[in-house]
Amino acid sequence: MRTIQWKDGKVILINQQKLPTELNYIECKNPNRIAKAIRNLEIRGAPAIGVAAAMALALTANNSKAKDKEDLFNQLEKMAKQLEMTRPTAINLFWAIERVLRKARSTVGTTEDIKEITIKEALTMAEEDIQKNKTMGKHGADLLEDGDVVGTICNAGWLATAGEYGTALGVIKVAHEQGKKISVIALETRPVLQGARLTAWELKQDGIDVKVIPDGAIGYCFYKGMINKFLCGADRIVVLNNCSVINKIGTHTVSLAAKYYHIPFYAVAPLSTFDFKNNLKEIRIETRRQTEVTEINGKRIVPAKVKAINFAFDITPPSLVTAIITEKGIIYPPFKENLFRVASSLE
Ligand code: MRU
Asked: If phi over 0 gives left and psi between -120 and 50 gives alpha, with beta otherwise, what is residue 228?
C-alpha cells in the first residue's frame, strides 16, 4: 500500500481525512493541490509530508514551461517556499525540499534533464523511505516479545510514510511477521483522531489485534498493567537538545506516565527526522485552528465564544525516552553521543 504515487505526470494521494469510512484518492495535477493536502491533513505524518513535498516539486518541474534553467529553478524555489509554510514542525518537509532543490541545482544539463532528475529524485525518496522503515522495523522488532501489548499514539504507520510499513507501527508489523503475537492499544489522539481512525484501520487491515482508548485512559491502563511497551513516531528529534522528541500532542504526557510505571518508551524515526541544526527555541510548534477542538464532525461542542488551544505537537525530554529506533540501529542514552556512533554514515 502506498500513500503517494506518481502516475502519468500526476500525483495520487490517499485522502486520509476520509478514512476509515472511505478509501478515496486525490488526483493532483497541480503542486498547489499537494500543498493544500498537506495543510488540511489529507496527507499527514512526518515522512509522508516529506515525500509529498518532493512530489510537489517533481510536479512543478513536470508542468513547467520554463524558458531556461534559471527560470525553472525560480519556479521550483517559489513552490518550495509555499510548501515550507504548510506545516512548520515536521522536519522531513524541509529535509525533502532541500534535498530535491540541491539535486536540481547540481544537475549539469538541459532544462529537460533537470526536470527528469527532479522527478527521479522524488521517486527515489519515496522508495528509500519504504526501505528505511522496513530496516527500522527489523531493528525495533528485536525489542518486542511474543505476547507484548504495545501502546501507541497518533498514526505512525504506513499512512504516515510513503507506504508499506511505517515507523512505530512498522516495528509492530515486522514483529507480527516474525510470528510474535503482539496486541496494540491505540490512543484515539484528540483532536483529529489519527489513532482511532487511521491506526485502528491500518492494524485491522494487517490482522493485528488493536483496541482504541480515550487519550485520558493511558495512566489507568499503565496502572492496571495492560500495556508493557510504548512506541511512538516523531516529527522532529532535536539533536542539540540531547535528542528531545517532538511528536503528536499528548506524547509527553504518555512519556511521564510511562516513566512512573517503568514502561519502556521508544521513539521510532528515520535519520531524516533528526534536526542537527536548530535548538528547541528556534523550532515552531504548530498550532492549528481552534475548530479542530471546539467541533466534532462540524458540530460545536464547546459553548459559544469559549476559545480553545490547539497545539499539534509537544516535546518529550530525552530523560523520559528509553531508546530511539532508527534505520541505523537502536540508540540508547546518552543519545547525542550514541547517535554519532550508531549513524556513522549520516546523510
Ligand atoms: O499531525 P500529524 O498527523 O501529521 O502528526 C503525525 C505524528 O505525530 C506522527 O507521530 C509523526 O509524524 C511520525 S509518523 C511516522
From this structure: alpha
